Amino acid sequence: MNIKKMLAVARGELAADVVIKNAKVANVFSLEFEKKDVAIYDGYIVGIGTGYYGKEEVDAKNAVLAPGFIEGHCHIESTMLTPAGFAEMVLPRGTTTVIADPHEIANTCGMEGLSFMYEESLHLPLDIFLTAPSCVPASPFETPREELDALAIKRTYEEGWCTTLGEVMNYPAVIHGDAEMWGKIFASWDVVRSGHAPGVTGKELCAYLLSGCSSDHESSTKEEGLEKLRRGMWLMIRQGATEHNLEELLPLIKENEARSSCAMFVSDDLTANHLQTKGHLDETLRLSIKKGLSPLVALRMVTLSPARYFRLFDRGAVAPGYIADLVLLDSLETCNVINVWKKGKKVVENRELLGAPFKREHNYPQSSEVFHIPTVEDISIEPSGNKKIRLIGFRRGQVVTTHLIENPTITNGKVTADKKRDIAKIVVVDKNSDSRRFFTGFVKGLDLKKGALASSVAHDAHNFIAAGMDDISIITALRELRNLGGGLVVASGDQILASLPLPVGGLMSDSTASDVILAIEDVEKAAETLGTSITHPFMAMSFLSLSVIPELKITDQGYVDLNRGGCMSLFVEDEHYN
What is the reported pTM? Predict the structure, then answer.
């Protein structure tokens, strides 16, 4: 960086590298538009005003010039794309910086997985800041490849892989002073610590906040979100592929737009299909503005607010001294991206991505070898007298579930799935260790009529999960998963209807985004033939094993309900949660 030349360009005495003229500059500090020219030199914005000239001059033609969008919380693995494929999808949508929590691949591949994500991110025209996975495992009731303790967290910072602490999901451990959990927090005391506290309020919220975990993307009601704002938490309003909290939480910002200074929009989990058909943060901007939020306030929540929270003081606004991450839009309301500059270099021109496909790091970590797939006889369940059973109550559009207790359906002396009652059998198999462990339960609400779905994407440990209406279909799907080394599978009886291999840690494909999208469409269409009307059924199923989200979940170790103490039995004596 040549400071003297940069100052001369700022004074208008030397030519800038690029000058964007006649722009309607979106000012996220003062929340106003300015008709100004913007001068860029050596990757930085050096001047805003009139009279600048450059080696390249771009006529914005009164289009909106905004800061590049910043994703404050997501899991790249959920797109089933590697960082390169993810970058190819989000850059044309105006996203130039991403805070990504790689705890998915950390669960399946340990430190090797973190190294892979970092290495592939290094040379992309998208800044990806990885967070240190705080919960591997997410709870003691999940089985990862290897546990990451406080020393492992410290190493991620020393290696340069991670810059902040990822969402601290085991909130009971934080609240009750678990030594191992607090060891990770103390190892991260000088960095930003992201939170995860679904339904945590009152005195428990106060206890949780002593950890310094100062953000949350799990609020599902206006009341919960307001309390967290009042206690100093940054509100991350999540609008993902299957988890939609914008409708409930946006009124908090609309009724007092000053709250946008401590709030941001995040996606958490998106599919590649969603990115292609609906978008990324551009879609959230359109939706929030349509629902009545002031356009510049909405823009602030995907630019300056996340930048300030994550201490990225060199981006998030169009201002002198800031990195020239810029997006040219037809308007904030429609948010159609025209051009994108990353550190002053054009990466999207006239809505077309330049320089793709990006380089892949093909030396990727593979998922663990699966030691044991149960048999049809193994997952067969005999009734236990007149006892009732627990069922996971699936809720569309939410990651939270309900804890149901109902009478079992008994067919030929076995507890079975029931199409009429919308009850499917669900099985989780440990693929990350040699325990040979599996557990069989039931889920209500997946809308399956026949066959089975199986996946190696099962938050957060990402063991094999399968849900179906008959035992043969379930075992057929699980065996195919083992053959693939991970992926998505649709089965009916002993036939495989469709599958998508995910060889990168059992979570991602190193193919291009377009190839992955076509394959996902194929498996989702095959899933529709089984009767389900759920959008993105594999993603919906993947959260049924996330033990740290209320209420009832399923892992290889059994049913789990952390709010009621941990592991739960399948059968119950009565309607009390025993």
Answer: 0.90
